[in-house]
Design goal:
Elements (H helix, E strand, L loop, with lengths): L12 H15 L13 E11 L2 E10 L5 E10 L9 H13 L8 E5 L11 H9 L3 E5 L17 E5 L5 E6 L8 E7 L3 H10 L8 H15 L2
Helix pairs in contact: 2-3
This protein binds two DNA strands through strand 1 and helix 2.
Pfam family, one: Endonuclease_5
Keywords: Cytoplasm, DNA damage, DNA repair, Endonuclease, Hydrolase, Magnesium, Metal-binding, Nuclease
Enzyme class: hydrolase
Length: about 230
DNA sequence: GCGACAG
DNA sequence: ATCTTGTCGC
């Protein structure tokens, strides 16, 4: 799975340089800290692409810890950038922000579909969104972007650290369900690893993906059909 | 120089 | 992310 990728158009090196600088700029604003209070609302977000040039972003708001859905919104906009590893936020965050604005009730924390600080420059889309919204965020990704880890046990609840070169903790690899590929959880902004992991586990309901992300994923695909 | 590479 | 059928295992 994804072992080999056919060669794609080489991204403009100058654009990559500028976006990387913007990313480092935003990184200086990231704060890793525990939540000030237990969340009452948690949101999940995700994007889908109805056409190669159209982005559809979804936000699902759930009451915590019951996880009942209280609101779901979406926004459709134009794609302005191709997918470039490490620069995902510049492709999806703009449209996600517009979808976020449509929420009547704002969440206490957001679970993002992607990495937090488990990123080459510690600035994954979860951290990026958190800084731009000045809101607590953390990431839950299905695939590793960077860092090393030892396969966690195959039983639900097993956890292994995701570390960078020099041992810094980038995130945690979590087996959310028996015998399924593990999830990569890392803090984004105004959140810490313990909180990110605790909330991820608290949002599991028998599926591989925690409810916020699973539902956002579900609606991103569902709304897409209605177009 | 050779891999690796979220969604 | 997206395209796409059947199939294996709990």
């Amino acid at each position: 799975m994804a072992y080999y990728r056919p060669p794609g158009p080489a991204p403009d090196p100058l654009l990559v340089r500028d976006l990387t600088r913007l990313q480092d700029q935003l990184r200086s604003q990231v704060r890793l800290e525990p939540l000030s209070a237990e969340p009452r609302f948690i949101a999940g977000c995700d994007s889908s692409f109805p056409t190669p040039e159209t982005v559809l972003s979804v936000f699902v708001l759930l009451r915590f810890p019951t996880l009942e859905v209280v609101e779901k919104v979406y926004h459709v906009g134009p794609v302005t950038l191709p997918y470039i590893p490490g620069l995902l936020a510049f492709r999806e965050a703009p449209n996600l922000l517009l979808a976020y604005e449509k929420l009547r009730q704002k969440p206490d924390i957001i679970m993002v579909d992607g990495h937090g600080i488990a990123h080459p420059r510690r600035m994954g889309i979860a951290a990026h969104l958190g800084v731009e919204l000045n809101q607590p965020t953390f990431g839950v990704a299905k695939q590793r972007l960077t860092g090393h880890f030892v396969e966690p046990a195959h039983s639900r609840g097993s956890i292994a650290p995701l570390t960078g070169k020099d041992g810094e903790l980038l995130g945690e690899v979590i087996r959310s369900k028996d015998n399924v590929l593990p999830l990569f959880v890392s803090p984004g902004h105004r959140c810490d690893q313990a909180t990110a992991t605790r909330l991820t586990l608290a949002c599991l309901r028998g599926y591989k993906l925690p409810e916020p992300t699973r539902l956002a994923d579900h609606w991103a695909a569902e709304f897409k059909k209605e177009l």
